[in-house]
Design brief:
With 160 residues, this protein is an alpha+beta fold. It has three helices and six strands; from the N terminus they run ααββββββα. The chain folds into two domains: 37 residues; 98 residues, Nucleic acid-binding proteins (OB fold (Dihydrolipoamide Acetyltransferase, E2P)), CATH 2.40.50.140. The longest helix has 35 residues. The N and C termini lie far apart (90 Å).
Length: 160
């Protein structure tokens, strides 16, 4: 048969350099992939975390900058009791008035075409997303209702 190969304990000079180079390339690749993932997470989080204005803040911005009418915004407030109407005709066009939660003098009309959430009612807290027109009507393309009633009792219990 053939002669057995025996390791003499001598170091192979090529091998440590190759392993180090492979590890270095792997590390650089790993850092690159990590940077791309971190960038995608950051941009995704920033896009989904949209701040909403109160009616007071909306009116202040519109008064300060008339071009703000063309900017899409989210506004939070409460539906004024008795203000919700559905217009007859093609499509479901809803109109209602939203008032600031803290300053009841600041309110604006909202027009929305579409299906409202099941929890929408005459006194619901809402977040409307759309544009505030120069005619004083907020044209919403999204209406969300806040469901605070489940949590208000818990907050009161915790405060006591």
């Amino acid at each position: 048969m053939g002669a057995a190969l025996r390791f003499t304990g001598g170091a192979c000079p090529d091998r440590p350099e190759r392993v180090t180079m492979k590890n270095g390339r792997f590390f650089v690749g790993l850092v690159g992939v990590g940077a791309v993932v971190a960038y995608l997470m950051w941009t995704g989080i920033n896009a989904s975390m949209v701040y909403y204005l109160t009616p007071v803040e909306l009116m202040a911005r519109v008064d300060g900058d008339p071009s703000f009418h063309q900017v899409g915004v989210k506004v939070s407030g409460r539906v004024v009791e008795g203000s919700w109407e559905r217009r007859a005709g093609a499509g479901a066009v809803h109109t209602f008035t939203v008032v600031d939660l803290e300053e009841s003098q600041v309110l604006f009309a909202v027009e929305y075409e579409g299906i409202l959430p099941d929890t929408f009612n005459d006194t619901a807290e809402v977040v409307v997303e759309g544009t505030y027109g120069a005619d004083g009507v907020f044209r919403a393309h999204t209406v969300l209702t806040k469901c605070g009633s489940r949590y208000e009792a818990l907050e009161e219990e915790l405060a006591a």
